[in-house]
Amino acid sequence: MAHRQQIWILLALPLVVGISHAATAGDLIIPLSCDIGRTCFIQNYVDIDDSPSAKDYMCGTLTYDGHNGVDFRLTSHGGRQNPVHVVVAAEGTVLRTRDGLADNPVKGDRRDAAKGNECGNGVVVRHSGDRETQYCHMAKDSILVKAGDTVRAGQVLGAVGMSGLTEYPHLHFIVRREGKVIDPFGTGLIPGACGNHTESEWTDDARVRLTYSPRAVLNFGFATEAVTNDMIEVDAVSQRKLTTKSEALVVYVRTIGLKTGDDQSLTLRDPDGRIIAEKGPVAVAQNQAQTILFIGKKRSTEPWPGGVYSATYIVGRNGAPMLNQVFRHDLR
């Protein structure tokens, strides 16, 4: 029987916080060539809290203690075949580079393996106004510039990788002024102040594209078996084709930014609208950098009926929807 792989997003209602268009714009563009909110997301912001606690510039949870940059996370690692380019955020001069470190993700119990090379392969660029930008965790042998080069905004520096101290493919982007880390989303105000700041290092276009979202669906889809983080990171799920004769029908969602007090649920329906698997609402016991929820059903002796299967994912809080996403798969 012919198979057609097709997934549609029907509804996505993330809670987002708007920005003030009266804010003073800066000159930094987004430092990588991805589609914000679709192929890449901000996983972590600068920690603006000087205490052992942590908070991002909106007093949210998308950071951790001492985090000094902005993490632009990819939904999966395209590798050398489909690289995501790291680009210069503003005109400047390359101060230094490092390349040649392997793209080996470091799990929690192996953090010492990256000691001294936490940034991995990277580039530092000097800009006017005694300001620097730093680009970390780049792919091995991808860096295209050298110290002393004059670079322009948007010029390709290399590719996103997984070198240094990282567990997933992302660009760790740091901004410094006079040697001190600054938050590109909010500058010139009292340290620790939250909210949409009136001063920013980003251009107007970048500010709009980087609208703050406290939660986001990073990955979703249909699969033939239970799904793990590692499978998603290397895009192995989509390589295992779902057919009417697959032993199991599984639907999964990977989400970032869930908070203590949230709850999540996932429901799978067959082409006739009947529920064939469901889970939730499941309470979120503590703030989560990321979480995977999946449900499924094993096939009986008969093939799966052909047609459109649908899945509904809901994140709620105190009875109100924070995320509500429906997606479908046409099984032929």
UniProtKB/TrEMBL annotation:
Gene3D superfamilies: Glucose Permease (Domain IIA)
Domain (M23ase beta-sheet core) ranges: 67-184
Keywords: Signal
Signal peptide, first to last residue: 1-25
One Pfam family of this chain: Peptidase_M23
Name of the featured protein: M23ase beta-sheet core domain-containing protein
Keyword NAD applies: no
Recorded GO MF terms: metalloendopeptidase activity
Keyword Signal set for record: yes
PANTHER family: MUREIN HYDROLASE ACTIVATOR ENVC (PTHR21666:SF270), PEPTIDASE-RELATED (PTHR21666)
Record lineage: Bacteria, Pseudomonadati, Pseudomonadota, Alphaproteobacteria, Hyphomicrobiales
